[in-house]
Design a protein that fits this description.
It is a single chain. Helix content is 25%, strand content 31%. The chain is an alpha+beta fold and 248 residues long. The protein has a single domain, classed as Glutamine Phosphoribosylpyrophosphate, subunit 1, domain 1 (4-Layer Sandwich). This is Class II glutamine amidotransferase. It holds the Pfam family GATase_4.
Length: 248
């Protein structure tokens, strides 16, 4: 299982500055979520850029450098705790995607092959890793390539996965496009992971300030009412012009 952190702001700044007091508590989770990291951000040309590594996020000089130097108005940061049967490699490290969209997932879907029917053979052939998470993204991309906006593409894909997979621990995800940050929150409340971690482990919450909104999975204190939980089984959309979540 992984951890997710996203930010959208009206005023571009280095990612480390945008995430401010949330960054260090998030990176401290790499003591357990130690199987790599990835960041996605909207660059100065309006495209999505992705950088990732397989070292521990809290020990990565490259990550710290990028967080200080990348100036943006939207970003997603992911730290990975690999499923036991999936290799720690760059190909399996989130976020997945390209200049059009970057996708990070927190959860597990079995079997991985249950997602293949949702993806055209030509798109499936572009998969570089072996994770369920990359296939989740490709299934969303399939919807988008057919003309669907991002939010309904995520929601419909999640529904289709529920109908086909034998086991779904969580479908939590964040997707960054040039148009906004999209999140989806859903998990199986009866999963053994919940039993080990507690009921809030798969919650996604957000905190809105004057010029920015931060969205995050659990792991460090997120006091109410400053932090508000996003509704389950819905896609939330955040943009630089509308920091409040638009719920789909």
């Amino acid at each position: 299982m992984c951890r997710l952190l996203g930010v959208v702001t009206r005023k571009s700044a280095p990612i480390a500055e945008l995430l401010a007091e949330d960054l260090d508590p998030f990176l401290e989770l790499a003591c357990e979520h130690k199987d790599g990291w990835g960041i996605a951000f909207r660059d100065e040309l309006g495209a999505v850029s992705i950088v990732k590594g397989t070292d521990r996020a809290d020990d990565s000089d490259l990550l710290r450098s990028l967080l200080k130097s990348c100036v943006t108005d939207m970003a997603v940061l992911h730290i990975r705790m690999a499923s036991p049967h999936l290799a720690v490699s760059t190909d399996n490290t989130h976020p997945f995607g390209d200049a059009r969209a970057a996708f990070a997932h927190n959860g597990e879907i079995r079997p991985v092959t249950s997602l293949d029917a949702l993806i055209s053979p030509s798109l499936l052939a572009t998969a570089v890793g072996t994770t369920d998470s990359e296939r989740y993204f490709l299934a969303v991309r399939e919807q988008m390539d057919q003309g669907s906006p991002a939010a309904p593409a995520i929601t419909r894909t999640a529904q289709s996965i529920r109908e086909r997979a034998e086991m779904v621990v969580s479908l939590n995800c964040m997707m960054l496009t040039p148009d906004g940050l999209f999140t989806y929150a859903e998990h199986d409340p009866h999963s053994e992971v919940i039993g080990r971690r507690g009921p809030g482990y798969f919650g996604l919450s957000y905190r809105q300030e004057e010029h920015k909104t931060v969205v995050a999975s659990q792991g460090w204190p997120q006091p109410r009412p400053q932090w508000r939980e996003l509704p389950a089984s819905h896609t939330a959309q955040f943009t630089t012009t509308d920091l409040q979540p638009r719920i789909h």
